[in-house]
Write a structure and sequence with these properties.
mainly beta, Lipocalin, eight-stranded antiparallel barrel, six-stranded antiparallel β-sheet
């Protein structure tokens, strides 16, 4: 939505006697678990409502609070003068009650809001537990036996440097071939904005596992008895 469209919406502010109910705690849904967001709406009357929100992009945070005013029974808008934009541009956040819950669209992603890099308020919000698009990523990529093997291999480092990265961060998979011809799944796991929280993993078709974390203090791990070197491999295009 362009800036002029937000201005046109704001020009329609009016008192609404029977507006939809916006009050509640709203959680952003249908996003990756590293990008949660929460909005609390209170004090609704015929003019509008108060809100406060926290928005995340992994370790980056954005906070916003104010009062949104009705333009119709199901749409309200918040206007603010940015302290973070060089051009001192007026910004807007639109709240719309829909069948799905609460839809939010802001006129700027980060800079003018004072948010951290890549943080946005945009999204669909629901009351109750949100649905994260990567909720089953661990189970989708690793069997129960493979998870147990990883636990045995990594010990105390399993939760922080494997499971946490897989469930909270980004996991990419491709095919590769080891130098001895063994086929394997090649995984890269990482958490954007969090240096040190990354790894590569070779999950071989014969059950061999080779884990190489970015955190140097851990060192590479394997379940292959007697292995002394991390194997060479070639990722398939």
């Amino acid at each position: 939505m362009q800036q002029e469209e937000f201005k046109k919406i704001y020009a329609q502010i009016q008192s609404v006697d029977h507006a939809e109910n916006f009050v509640g705690t709203w959680n952003r849904t249908d996003v990756q678990s590293g990008m949660p967001a929460h909005i609390i709406v209170t004090n609704q009357d015929t003019e509008g409502f108060d809100f406060s929100g926290e928005f995340f992009y992994y370790s980056h945070l954005g906070c916003l609070e104010g009062r949104a005013y009705f333009v119709s029974s199901d749409i309200a808008i918040y206007e603010y003068q940015s302290e973070y934009s060089e051009d001192d541009i007026t910004q807007y956040v639109v709240f719309e009650r829909t069948e799905e819950g609460l839809k939010v669209i802001a006129s700027d992603y980060s800079g003018a809001l004072g948010f951290g890099a890549n943080v946005t308020a945009d999204g669909t919000y629901i009351e109750g537990e949100p649905l994260y698009t990567n909720a089953t990523v661990l189970e989708d990529n690793f069997t129960a036996d493979e998870q147990e093997n990883m636990k045995n291999m990594l010990g105390d480092d399993y939760d922080e440097y494997f499971k946490y990265i897989v469930e909270y961060g980004v996991l990419e998979r491709s095919q590769c071939t080891l130098e001895d011809g063994t086929k394997a799944d090649f995984y890269e796991g990482y958490i954007p904005t969090m240096g040190g929280y990354a790894f590569e993993l070779l999950k071989c078709e014969n059950g061999d596992l080779y884990f190489y974390p970015e955190a140097e203090e851990i060192g590479w791990k394997t379940n292959v008895s007697g292995a002394i070197d991390y194997p060479a491999y070639e990722v398939e295009e």
